Amino acid sequence: MAHFARLAPGKITGFVSLARPHSFFSFREKYFPGLEPLGRLFSQIRAHGARTLVIEEVDESSAVDLREEKEDLATRVSGFNNSSAYRLSFFSKNFKSIRGLNKASSSDFVGYLIIKEDRFPGGVIQRRIFESVLRTSDLVHNYIRGSRNWQTQVGGRRFSVPGLLYAQQNGITNICAHVALRSVIPRFNKGNDMTYREMNRILGIDHITNWVGPKELNNPHTDERGLSIDQMELILDSAGSRVIRADYAQSSAPKVPYQRYVYGSIESGFPSIIVFDTNQTGSKHAIPVFGHTFNRDTWVPSAERGYFQVGSHTGYLPSESWVSSFVMHDDNFGSNFCVPRHYLRPVGSGGSSSNSTIAQQAASSEWVAHVLCPLPKSIKLPPLHAELIGVDFLFAILPQLPQDGNKWGGRLSSIYAATQMRF
């Protein structure tokens, strides 16, 4: 029976105690050298109090996603040799045998990583995180939306963990847009994952006449292809969502800050995807965003209203103003990062940021080109529009509030008059 790699049978090759003096640095250098995101993932695993690691070699013939990718790599790369996959599962419970594993429960389960090794001609080995799900952070100021319970198999037993799937591209048969879509799609696809082959089939990518990445793998600058925003939207539509788009890399760029789209999507319970320019020649990168940090003590909204006269021209300060960072995955570096709300900036009207004076003045910042906010097809009103309609009703009601004997009516009316709120 075919399974995804997380549920495929595996052969246990070791139990590792994570108690001191165990070193994740030494473990990574010994078994998976050069795999940068592993350091970030191990740091999160340590923060969750993991005490035991179970290592398994996955039966690739039983894993439909691993088998499909292996076949597609053989189509794309002449002389592709073979691959191996290892499932690393982490528990907060101490044990060192099958007997101990059989006493563990999902409440002890911190999460899993699947590491894939692909072997190419000339002895080249590419290692990457094929997928990972770690337990959602319980930090007080982190608000994560749209996480779900993921099931995985460890030693023949099933465990579940709440979180959001993280994955790395291989840059040959899938790229950053593919892995960003994988993080988002389970929210719509009846809770199911979508393989890279399914995505490519929707787009007519056969790895021969149509491909992603560079045409010649030994020359990374030959006819390099990514996924367009239209193609990403087509995949999301096939997964059962409708997409709200904000295209900032066009002359008709929206006036609304991209943060408002992302925040509205997240607060509605659905992740979004941000596509931004990098400082490399014409390249873009896609990241899934699924949460935010919220700081009620932040000074900026009060300063905007009190010092910079935002209140004289703006009807209200949305709750998004108190967001400090967005929570996202970056396939190049790891999972569950926080990006400051104002670090990523819209390209703005006028097209590409490569010729933008502003971009040249602040080259350290990345420039948002597109935002994709997928929602269920049953939802007809975009979150941003729903918010504005709500504000319109609020401002219509405020002047009608009774003043006599209603303290809150008086308080709200006073605030309304003092700030000269207008919508």
How would you portray this structure in words?
The chain has a domain at 384-423. With 423 residues, it is an alpha+beta fold. Strands 6, 9, 10, 11, 12, 13, 14 and 15 form an 8-stranded mixed beta sheet that branches. It has a 5-stranded antiparallel beta sheet with strand order 1-2-3-4-5, covered by helices on one side. The chain contains 12 helices and 15 strands. It has helices at 24-31, 37-47, 64-76, 98-102, 176-184, 196-203, 229-238, 258-267, 300-306, 357-361, 383-397, 407-419; strands at 10-17, 52-58, 82-91, 109-120, 124-134, 142-144, 148-154, 157-163, 241-247, 272-277, 284-294, 323-330, 334-340, 345-346, 367-376. 27% of the residues lie in helices and 27% in strands.
Could you write a compact summary of the structure shown?
Helices cover 27% and strands 27% of the residues. The chain has 423 residues and is an alpha+beta fold. It has a domain at 384-423.
Topology:
Blueprint: E1 10-17, H1 24-31, H2 37-47, E2 52-58, H3 64-76, E3 82-91, H4 98-102, E4 109-120, E5 124-134, E6 142-144, E7 148-154, E8 157-163, H5 176-184, H6 196-203, H7 229-238, E9 241-247, H8 258-267, E10 272-277, E11 284-294, H9 300-306, E12 323-330, E13 334-340, E14 345-346, H10 357-361, E15 367-376, H11 383-397, H12 407-419
Parallel strand pairs: 14-15
Antiparallel strand pairs: 1-2, 2-3, 3-4, 4-5, 6-11, 7-8, 9-15, 10-11, 10-15, 11-12, 12-13
Which whole number gives the mean pLDDT?
A: 87
- Give the distance, in angstroms, between the N- and C-terminal Cα atoms: 59 Å
Report strand %.
Answer: 25-35%
State the major sheet: 8 strands, mixed
Structural class: alpha+beta
Helix content: 25-40%
Oligomer class: single chain
Query: Which shape, going by the Cα principal axes?
Result: globular
- How many H/I helical runs? 12
Q: Which parts are unreliable, with pLDDT below 50 for 5 consecutive residues or more?
A: 349-364
Over all CA atoms, what is the radius of gyration? 24 Å
Number of strands: 15
- Element string (H = helix, E = strand): EHHEHEHEEEEEHHHEHEEHEEEHEHH
